[in-house]
């Protein structure tokens, strides 16, 4: 069995390949379908953007499509970068530049005020049917500097108290066990056989 994930993010694609492998499902992403259009994320919430991405690609392909909209919400920055997480430091979507921007904005903010959380909304769209969504949230703190090289995005500066490490210092299975995406996937898991069949 195969499922299409409407993402161009290599970090997400890698995580979904591993998460869906646990259900015996192979993942295709927009990286495998370069001719499909780029979906402009005009929504104000993760949920709106996830639905927009999933429904647009489901319409184009006529198939069941799952999309992920996710991001980091930092309390000391009034919830930013939030839905703008991917392009916080500019349209080129540089993880490196985004991290530098967050660290600069948090300069002088003490450890106990650096609380943050990752959000993930997964939308499952099928042509002609109502789109379903599930959500996962992962609490943590923003470190003073980067630590670790695993994962993607803001993982090097997201400290997970459960492991006393940053997300970028965790093995993939460890990250999945606590991450926003892992939690959302486990909620989706109970719906998967019904959705995908078998
Ligand atoms: P697609 O829309 O093609 O899926 P995108 O990168 O534009 O890719 P989003 O709009 O959902 O996706 O932005 C999510 C951003 O939030 C992502 O680029 C990372 O910077 C960050 N992010 C999401 N999940 C993350 C994770 O597990 N670890 C670290 N950063 C994450
Ligand atoms: Na987004």
Automatic annotation (TrEMBL):
Cofactor-binding details, from the entry: Binds 1 Mg(2+) ion per subunit.
UniProt-listed CDD domains: HAM1
Keyword tags: Hydrolase, Magnesium, Metal-binding, Nucleotide metabolism, Nucleotide-binding
Cofactor list: Mg(2+)
Residues at the active site: 69 (proton acceptor)
Enzyme class: hydrolase
Catalysis performed (reactions): dITP + H2O = dIMP + diphosphate + H(+); ITP + H2O = IMP + diphosphate + H(+); XTP + H2O = XMP + diphosphate + H(+)
Chain sites annotated for binding Mg(2+): 40, 69
NCBIfam families, alphabetized: PRK14822.1, RdgB/HAM1 family non-canonical purine NTP pyrophosphatase
Subunit structure: Homodimer.
Function (record text): Pyrophosphatase that catalyzes the hydrolysis of nucleoside triphosphates to their monophosphate derivatives, with a high preference for the non-canonical purine nucleotides XTP (xanthosine triphosphate), dITP (deoxyinosine triphosphate) and ITP. Seems to function as a house-cleaning enzyme that removes non-canonical purine nucleotides from the nucleotide pool, thus preventing their incorporation into DNA/RNA and avoiding chromosomal lesions.
Name used for this protein in its record: dITP/XTP pyrophosphatase
Protein's organism: Bacillus badius
């Amino acid at each position: 069995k195969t499922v299409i994930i409407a993402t161009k993010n290599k970090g997400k694609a890698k995580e979904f390949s591993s998460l869906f492998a646990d259900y015996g499902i192979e993942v295709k992403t927009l990286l495998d379908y370069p001719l499909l259009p780029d979906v402009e994320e005009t929504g104000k919430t993760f949920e709106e953007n996830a639905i927009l991405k999933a429904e647009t690609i489901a319409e184009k392909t006529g198939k069941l499509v799952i999309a992920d909209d996710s991001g980091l919400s930092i309390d000391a920055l009034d919830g930013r970068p939030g839905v703008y997480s991917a392009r916080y430091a500019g349209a080129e979507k540089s993880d490196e530049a985004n991290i530098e921007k967050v660290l600069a904005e948090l300069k002088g903010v003490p450890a106990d005020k650096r609380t943050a959380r990752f959000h993930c909304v997964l939308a499952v769209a099928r042509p002609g049917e109502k789109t379903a969504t599930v959500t996962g949230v992962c609490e943590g703190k923003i470190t003073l500097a980067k630590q670790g090289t695993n994962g993607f995005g803001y993982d090097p500066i997201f400290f997970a108290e459960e492991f006393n490490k940053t997300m970028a210092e965790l093995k993939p299975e460890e990250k999945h066990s606590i991450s926003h995406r892992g939690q959302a996937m486990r909620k989706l898991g109970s719906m998967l056989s019904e959705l995908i069949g078998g």
